[in-house]
Amino acid sequence: MALSKLRITRDACVYDIGAGTGSVTVESALFAKVYAVEKNPQALSQLQENLTHFGLNNVQVVPGAAPQEMQPLPAPDFVFVGGSSGSIADILRLCLQKNPRVRMVVTAITLETAADLLSAVKQLREQGCPLKLEITQISAARSKTAGGLHLMMGQNPVFIFCLFAEDALPQ
After folding, report:
1. From CA 127, how far away is CA 120, in angstroms rounded?
2. What region does 135 belong to: left with phi over 0, alpha with psi -120 to 50, or beta?
3. pLDDT band at 168 (very low <50, low <70, confident <90, very high)
4. Distance between CA 67 and CA 164 in Å, rounded?
5. pTM to 2 decimals?
6. How far apart (Å, rounded) are the C-alpha atoms in residues 84 and 87?
7. Where are the beta strands (DSSP E) in the chain?
8. Crossing angle for the helix pair 111-126 and 88-98, to the nearest 10 degrees
9. Does pLDDT of 121 surpass 50?
């Protein structure tokens, strides 16, 4: 769902912030050049294994924390943020400085992250940044067997925030 909201175009420049083990990175690399920013050493190791497994050579792994490690990267066309370690406002601000028409998708599973993101968007708008925001909330359930019956057990809902220039089409 997050990738469908991002709408990556062929040969674009994509940032995957908080790339983890690389699920978004791998899918994005089918279309574009990807910069995968990740600070967790264990996740970085698995990310590199996944890139090797899928034979992807259009991904640059960027070890370290965002937004610091994003500074030298080229301007992004699309940004996915799966983890921000509390730096969402600074990440959004830097991406918009690099490309005011960047399309960004941020996922959140906690209300605190959602609140931080909404606060960051409000600040950016107050500073004159014409951001459009669409919010989608999705949930899923997995089956569990109990007493010979199959129950659907709800998982955590996920908020998907899509941010783009106000004059750009929502796509």
Report:
1. 11
2. beta
3. low
4. 19
5. 0.91
6. 5
7. 13-17, 33-38, 59-63, 78-81, 103-108, 131-138, 141-146, 149-154, 158-165
8. 40
9. yes
